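Box 3.1 — From sequence to structure: Diguanylate cyclase (GGDEF)-like protein/PAS domain S-box-containing protein
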Amino acid sequence: MNPTDALGPELQRQPSGPSLEDALRDRLDAAFWRAPALALFGALLLVSLTLLLERQPGSQIAIWFTDAFGVVLLLCCRPAARVAVLAGLMGGTLAAGLLGGRPDLMLAWMPGHLMATAAGAWMLQGVAQRQQIGSSPAVLAQVGLVAVLLPALLSASLSLPLLMLTSAALPAMPVTMIWLNQALGGVIGSLVLLPLLLAALAQPWPSPAPERPDRRRSNADTLVLMLAGAGVTVLALLHLVHPFVYIALPLMIGAVLLDFLRLQLLVLGVTLVFGAMVATGLVAEPPTTARWQEVLLHLSLVVMLLPELLLSAAVGASRERRLALEAQRERYRQLYERTPAMMHSIGPDGRMLAVSRLWLERLGYDERDVIGRPSTDFLDADSRRRAIEQVLPQFLRTGECRDVEYRMLARDGRPVDVLLSATSERDAQGRFLRSLAVLEDVTRKRLAEQLAAEHQRTAAMLECIGDAVIGIDARGRLRSLNPAAVAMTGWTLEEARGRDWAGWLSRRGVADDEPAPPDPVALCLAHRTRPEPTSCRLVRRDASWRVVREIVLPMSAPGGQGFDGVVLTLQDMTAAHDLARTLAHRAHHDALTGLPNRLLLQDRLQQALRLARRQHQPLALMFMDLDHFKQINDRHGHDAGDELLKAVAQRVRGAVRASDTVCRLGGDEFVVLLPQIEAALDAERVARHILSEVSRPYRLGALPELHVSFSIGIAVFPEDGEDEATLMRRADTAMYQAKREGRNALRFHQRGDTDLTPT
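Predicted structure (token representation):
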């Protein structure tokens, strides 16, 4: 499955930082007078605009913007200031009525509109996702219902009785027409202004700067469409039949090309042009009777605006989801590349599509050298043939594979053993699209498996030794012990018979910090099945312990009727356990000096290099060779030479830090690994200290005083190499150069040095 398919519909891009609503709320909260003052001047301006857009004196058709403005202002101010805001709205409305010569009309309208404004703000608070009005048709519809339609109906219903009581303000038309005109005016004004204000308040504040090219292009598109919308509105209303069809065209184009906020600006412009033409009498009323012309004209405007707003919100939702999916896809790509595991993906043609950073690091490649190449290019000959003939055909057929053993080749030719597990992604028709493979580097694990296999072989040989056999009845009580069991546990048969097994012997984990494994005898008694063999430390009666292997078999009663008990066989694995620890030590250490050998050096050098790369810190590798050691061997014998090597090893080990590694490669060759140094000067200081310590006289038994010295070659990561092979080769070259230059000296690898042989 594509990772983006898992995204839920709730995934939305949220603006970073505070929004304009937060900034406005902070400004209004800073001083109590700001909110009512803004309400006063805003209502004065918007009510004056409403009066200018009236068709004629006595008409109730007016685009009423003040409710939407009041709703938004009540949302942004603190609760204590809301009464003052309503008072400001009332004052601005009355002032506009006085200036426009219609105070009686404003007095009749004002109570209903104030209550509708308060109700709309209260209901809009329950729309938790109102900031997503431009990217969710559902939110837009919810806002339209609770803050546009219901408040408009409420204001019309509350204003109608006052209009009927005020004969001077009551126009000569039916009551139903008055109510419908009032409701339409509120719907148009709030439908145009409220989404615009809510979309603006959801914008981040301050606006991101500098302005992006796509934002500048969107501003230009908005200006062009506003001019086109105004022109089309004028021409359509004056000269065309069915004008709203033509007016809707630039709005529909804007819904597709512009974001919701800019579309609302376009809608506002078209609405103002429409209102101005109605107010000046330039628009021909629809041919009907009973004064329904004005209602039909403005109802047509509402019907035209609603689809464009919903289309814009739907386009915005699609745009937001696409951007969110792209961002999520980019996060998945980065996560894939940065995951600390070796991973790669191949396409249907078997070529590499993607690869993780650890894959590149382990094999030493750059991404540009890998992408597009067949995955088999990175395998050795045997693995490549098996992949082409067996693994890939089966994988393309079944869609998965597990723990396939491959040998890969690093860029420097170094073999890397891996276990590959993969799964596939397919399309709806079942066609293979790509794979996701995870590779486990088991190069070092192979060595551990060899040691474990050797331990198992040793354990198999020890099975020939007489084992302890203990019989336990179905109730868990001791029944019998053979002589080997008596010798192993320290209990005689007479003392042990009848004892409860659970409290008889103490069992512990094989390692000191390891808990005891589950008791196989208790498992067999409970489930009456044969458990897997386990190993533990068995504490004997005298408090000494032995490492044993526990093998449990259930016994059937005579004739096979029922469960009769358990036979426990204890194989003494103490010698095998000790031998395995010894073998593990010998596999990594020099037998003569006890120093780490070449194998352990390589492992520690690999770990030190990985740490140095991560921490961007140098390390040093020193190759050291004893000067004239052959003469001491020839003069005093090999035994004396061995004693001298052990003494030299002890002095070198005492001259370095505990975190450094001193290794004997063989003969009189030693290597010192200095991880986590600050600079090459640290390596030089350690090397001179080693030269000083080693050059002190040696007194070995009856031998005369011996004197030796070192020739030391030093290579530093990353200046002299970034992989273990290069560092070892260049340190060796520098050592031989030091021998040529007089011995008893140290020398760093220098550019231009070539491989040398000892002289």
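Summary of the box: DSSP finds 23 helices and 16 strands in the chain.
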